[in-house]
Amino acid sequence: GRGLCPQGARAKATIPAALQAQESTEGPGTGQDRPRLRSPAELPGTGTLQFLFQLFLQGYVLHLPDLQVLNKTKYGPMWTTSFGTYTNVNLASAPLLEQVMRQEGKYPIRDHMDQWKDHRDHKGLTYGIFIAQGEQWYHLRQALKQRLLKPDEAALYTDALNEVISDFITRLDQVRAESESGDQVPDMAHLLYHLALEAITYILFEKRIGCLKPSIPEDTAAFIRSVAIMFQNSVYITFLPKWTRPLLPFWKRYLNGWDNIFSFGKKLIDEKVQELKAQLQETGPDGVRVSGYLHFLLTNELLSTQETIGTFPELLLAGVDTTSNTLTWALYHLSKSPEIQEALHKEVTGVVPFGKVPQHKDFAHMPLLKAVIKETLRLYPVVPTNSRIITEKETEINGFLFPKNTQFVLCHYVVSRDPSVFPEPNSFQPHRWLRKKEADNPGILHPFGSVPFGYGVRSCLGRRIAELEMQLMLSRLVQKYEIALAPGMGEVKTVSRIVLVPSKKVRLHFLQRQ
After folding, report:
1. Looking at the chain, which terminus has fewer C-beta neighbours within 10 angstroms, N or C?
2. What's the CA gap between 387 and 405, in Å, rounded?
3. Other beta carbons less than 10 A from residue 395's beta carbon
4. 382 vs 163: CA distance, rounded Å
5. What are phi and psi of 469, to 5 degrees?
6. Which residues are CB-contacts of 480 (< 8 A; sequence separation ≥ 6)?
7. What backbone torsions phi and psi does residue 407 show, to the nearest 5 degrees?
8. Measuring CA to CA, which residue among 513, 510, 428, 512 is closest to residue 191?
9. Are 343 and 372 in contact (CB under 8 A)?
């Protein structure tokens, strides 16, 4: 998964106040001295009081990426952030991210996810794929990657996604018709969230949950509210000490949010298990149809029921924010860039004429569509920061030697807007991702400049599904509508509530093309 940890999440281990710097040693066979490796104590950074001042008194609880931008300007691409006895090392350049990510072991640790573990321990739940570590994580990863990681495996879900997207377009037209102008959607992110939740539930459970109906079922609506409550309160839970939990309302709200999320997931899992039992009784093991994702995992005995209960609610969360937020930002920028939108419309309809439904194979002929999605994810990585904890060995980064269990915070938002990697970094320029290199299009200057789905064995499990869903959705909208920004919208900024979201409702006009 993509990793839902805030910039200040606490590491289990600390950097000692003064790690002894390494003396110069001879390189093997060279007869030359190696440069002295520096101690982490020599790094600049913020102490606990300064960090809290920045975080709360300056209002950065909603704008952690902005805080990172300021700290990079002040300290350079590497600095420490201290919070009590915990210290994180922040990395804000593509080469530094590459150095850490390429040193991952067999069981890389993204973050200890203590707050998520606290809830699972409180309820006696099995750890899911996001918070399991070591061999337990590896077992879950090996099971869950089946029928998911490869593009041709993701292609199996094309028909299911197109079915959901057809219902979404019907709902979109209903919302448009209800507007005063007859063509406006007043809150694009809200509508796309419902699409993404319906889609991921259908893929995981083969179950439609009514997100795209005019009246949403109460248990589905309660799940959506609970996700928002959990994320909103997790910001406070992360930074407030544990002794405040009985005194302040955030901890109870946080637990209640998670309880409802797991209750929703368990209900869907229980229904699937009962369905499988009924099919076995009717047809025997050879007659069970292997189709949906959970169906496949259970019938092949790749996961136990308890492991699915611990993991699948987390997969539901991970499968929603990536696509809904990214599609919202993409439509926002296409509405502000008529020339790019027109070029995209021409590309899409050149491959899939109006009235035809795109298929997985069609996207090999839509480079601009893929570039629009890549550029959107560069500007708005769903998770603006991630982290890695190197547990196996000491780690050398940029001339510094860090002890085992150092937590490195990967500042993706800052890195993906680095002008040395992406010229004019704050502008929406999908053409920079196209292969043709020209004088005004130098291309991508570092492969780790934008890694929205992570890297290596802990990269996003659902990447191919998310990409397919966004390609299908965006191509069908551009094929059918001209998209325009609602009057008076103004600039939409980013807000970080663990994941990166728009600062206000994105209002768009969808004008029928034919």
Report:
1. C
2. 12
3. 21
4. 25
5. -60, -45
6. 169, 354, 512, 513, 514
7. -95, 120
8. 510
9. no
Q: What does the mean pLDDT of the chain come to?
A: 85
The answer to whether 128 and 310 are in contact (CB under 8 A) is yes
List residues bridging with 386 in a β-sheet. 410
CA atoms of 96 and 72, how far apart (whole Å): 13
Residues 6+ apart with CB under 8 A from 130: 1, 3, 4, 113, 116, 314, 318
Map residue 407 onto helix, strand or coil: strand
Dihedral Cα 162, 163, 168, 171, nearest 10 deg: 150
Contact partners, residue 228, CB within 8 Å, separation at least 6: 257
39-93: pLDDT as tens digits: 888 898 876 566 665 555 544 444 677 888 888 999 999 999 877 667 889 999 9
What digits encode the pLDDT tens for the residues 83-125? 766 788 999 999 999 999 988 888 888 877 889 999 999 999 9
- The values of phi and psi at residue 87, to 5°, are -135, 130
Main-chain dihedrals φ then ψ at residue 109, nearest 5 degrees: -110, 120
CB neighbour list of residue 398: distance below 8 Å, 6 or more residues apart:
78, 95, 96, 99
* 143-201 tens-digit pLDDT: 999 888 888 888 999 999 999 999 999 999 999 999 999 999 999 999 999 999 999 99
- Where are the alpha helices (H) located in 179-304, listed in sequence order? 188-205, 218-239, 250-283, 293-299
Tokens read off for 399: 């001339």
Distances from the Cα of 322 to the Cα of 94, 258, 329, 387, angstroms: 22, 19, 11, 18
For residue 172, which of 513, 508, 514 has the smallest C-alpha distance? 508
Q: Are 81 and 64 in contact (CB under 8 A)?
A: no
From CA 332, how far away is CA 187, in angstroms rounded? Answer: 11
Q: Which among 52, 71, 55 is positioned nearest to 63, based on CA atoms?
A: 55
Q: Are strands 78-83 and 86-91 parallel, antiparallel or unpaired?
A: antiparallel
Angstrom distance (rounded) from CA 2 to CA 461: 8
